[in-house]
Amino acid sequence: MPHKQNPVLTKLLVTLLRYNAVQLGEMHQALIHERERSVAAWALEWIVLPAMLHSAAEDLLAQVETIGALAKVLMAR
User: Fold this and answer.
1) Residue in 10, 6, 18 with CA at minimum distance from that of residue 63
2) Whether the Cβ atoms of residue 23 and residue 45 lie closer than 8 Å to each other
3) In angstroms, rounded to a whole number, what is the distance separating the alpha carbons of residues 59 and 64?
4) Are 44 and 30 in contact (CB under 8 A)?
């Protein structure tokens, strides 16, 4: 069907949001400090945080593409 479009970007959005939800649990684990300044918790935070920021950036790019595609569809009507 030529008019059919697969919702790839919307599936990507949901996937990235779920990924960050899982990473949030790891960030909560990084809040647990054995001592006043736990090196393990600090290291875990800096392992998880870049991955969360990267997926959030990818999510924003996918949202921009989705909104652009939606705007094109609405303008064509």
Assistant:
1) 10
2) no
3) 9
4) yes
Contact 55, 13 (CB under 8 A): no
What is the number of residues in the chain? 77
Among the listed residues 49, 1, 41, the one whose alpha carbon sits nearest the alpha carbon of residue 23:
49
Please state the pTM of the whole predicted model. 0.74
Q: Give the pLDDT band (50/70/90) at residue 3.
A: low
How far, in Å, are 8, 16, 26, 42, 57 from residue 54 at the CA level? Answer: 19, 10, 16, 19, 5
CA 46-49-52 angle, to 5 degrees, is 155
